[in-house]
Design brief:
The complex is a heterodimer.
Chain A lengths: L10 H13 L2 E2 H7 L9 H11 L2 E5 L12 E5 L1 H22 L1
Chain B lengths: L11 H10 L2 H22 L3 H25 L8 H7 L4 H19 L1 H23 L4 H4 L1 H19 L1 H23 L28 H17 L4 H26 L12
Helix pairs in contact in B: 1-2, 2-3, 5-6, 6-8, 8-9, 9-10
The chains are: A mainly alpha, B mainly alpha.
């Protein structure tokens, strides 16, 4: 019998969830700036797209003020599932950490 | 220096280029947000030439990174743009075809018509495999095995006249290696989930799909393959040596890049722990 599929949480996705939960909704560029080089401009959206497909984050298009020009940015929010996955991950990591370090 | 006007905005050319390179979902999910960031950085930079230059460099670099990386890291999406579809093809098939043709062009002087025969045989088997997989989509993970065995037998039969007893030695060595790998894996079971528990994106002849990562058996397999090729083709020893050096450098870079992120989750039987 195969185990039920559990969504994975790679380090970059963990970092993004961590930043979103700690700081609230953020633009991609803000995530890059807060990551201390761990996230790159451009490819951060590939990670965010994957997380959106998994249901960890959701996004909305920025509401542009009247008369504003340029492309609207996307703002990202953590979903309740994303927050639960992050909590579960933190619990798992804190339980396993002593064994992994020994 | 480009300024924001209702007629022309920075990044407009990149938006047009993106419509040629990417399909709509990829464009709206990955590319346009990156270009929106580029425009935002330019807005924040104001009229300062230095800051505007930095924003331009960062914006174009981000776009270039997306163009290079997207076909490999975005699942199934980025092949829809007209140019990308032509260059890359479905699942990178066109690139692989070009690579295969270049490889056969390189070995053609070495093997003569034998290379052409192998190409023909390979094409026929690829068509058979594709047709078979299309008709047996539900069980394709295991169903291709007999055909792959047939491919191996056909290849050994084809090269028999050239290499003679070396072929038998290679087959015997391969069987011994397979038994050794099986014994090793039985004694040191992997900590990775079995293949049946992982999502299988579809059967393809793709070495990267062979789950040998982290196993000592994987290292043995690679060394065995290199030694076998060198015994059969001693003329390419310098090419193999250069490949090994380049591979070692790439592996080192990947290891350094990944180690801070994955160090705590290396399986107990990984090569890294030996």
């Amino acid at each position: 019998m195969t185990a039920p599929h559990v969504p994975s949480l790679p380090p970059k996705e963990r970092l993004i969830l961590d930043l979103l939960i700690a700081n609230g909704p953020l633009f991609g560029l803000q995530l890059v700036a807060m990551s201390d080089g761990a996230l790159k401009r451009g490819t951060v959206y590939v990670t965010l797209g994957r997380m959106e497909a998994k249901g960890f984050v959701r996004s909305e298009q920025e509401v542009m003020p009247p008369g504003a020009i340029g492309l609207p940015r996307r703002v990202y929010y953590p979903t309740p599932l994303g927050e639960r996955v992050m909590r579960a991950w933190s619990r798992l990591a804190s339980e396993l950490l002593p064994e992994m370090q020994s | 220096m480009t300024t924001f006007t209702p007629n022309r905005q920075p990044g407009e050319r990149l938006v047009k280029l993106a419509t040629w390179l990417f399909d709509e979902p990829t464009r709206s999910t990955f590319v346009l947000p990156a270009l929106a960031d580029f425009q935002q950085e330019l807005r924040v930079a104001g009229e300062s030439p230095g800051r505007r230059l930095t924003a331009y460099v960062r914006g174009y670099a981000a776009f270039a990174r997306l163009v290079v990386a997207a076909p490999f890291i975005v699942p199934s999406a980025p092949m829809g743009g007209p140019v990308t579809t032509f260059v890359v093809g479905k699942h990178g098939g066109n690139l692989l075809l070009v690579l295969a043709l270049a490889l056969f062009a390189a070995i053609r002087p070495l093997f003569g018509w034998f290379a052409v025969a192998v190409v023909g045989l390979g094409v026929m088997l690829a068509i058979v495999l594709r047709v078979w997989n299309n008709h047996h989509a539900d069980s394709r993970a295991t169903a291709a095995d007999p055909l792959l065995s047939l491919l191996a037998v056909a290849l050994f039969a084809a090269i028999w006249s050239m290499f003679g007893w070396f072929v038998l030695a290679a087959v015997g060595g391969g069987v011994v290696m397979a038994v050794a790998l099986r014994r090793w894996n039985t004694r040191h079971p992997t900590k990775y989930p079995p293949a049946s528990d992982r999502a299988m994106p579809g059967a393809e002849i793709n070495l990267s799909s062979i789950p040998v990562a982290g196993d000592f058996g994987g290292l043995l397999f690679v060394i065995g393959a290199i030694v076998t090729v060198l015994l059969g083709l001693p003329d390419i020893r310098w090419f193999v040596l250069a490949s090994v050096v380049a591979g070692a450098v790439l592996a080192g870079v990947l290891f350094l890049w990944r180690s801070p992120r994955t160090a705590t989750f290396v399986p107990a039987n990984s090569i890294l722990r030996r």
